[in-house]
Write a structure and sequence with these properties.
about 130 residues, seven-stranded mixed β-sheet, mainly beta
């Protein structure tokens, strides 16, 4: 059974940092691109950051560039999202997802190409 298990998240003050983890169970991440997505109340799910499995290319949404970093540790079968300088507008439920599709960096963070999803974790940025 293919599962993505998320950890991390929580409440943090503006300017603070959090690290999200996404661990694969039942399959190896070596052959999957991994994406981090978020969904705020009343808004569509958006791609935050994604990393390919072919050449480890990365994509970042403009809103998080320079603040978020996606990394993958294939030995631990885990992908991380380090989030620094958090802002209230980063508040959302964050999801990780996996796909075996090989695509361009420009389309790497398109939610519809991802087939396996984590359970989601709440990130709240508030003073």
């Amino acid at each position: 059974q293919l599962q993505l298990v998320q950890s991390g998240g929580g409440l943090v003050q503006p300017g603070g940092s959090l690290r999200l983890s996404c661990a694969a169970s039942g399959f190896t991440l070596d052959y999957y691109a991994i994406g981090w997505f978020r969904q705020a109340p009343g808004k569509e799910r958006e791609g935050v950051s994604c990393i390919s499995h072919s050449d480890y290319s990365t994509y970042y949404a403009d809103s998080v560039k320079g603040r978020f970093t996606i990394t993958r540790d294939n030995a631990k079968n885990t992908v991380y999202l380090q989030m620094n300088s958090l802002k209230p507008e980063d508040t959302a439920v964050y999801y990780c997802a996996a796909t075996r599709l090989i695509t361009t960096v420009q389309t790497l963070c398109t939610p519809s190409i991802y087939t396996n999803w984590g359970q989601g974790t709440q990130v709240t940025v508030s003073s």
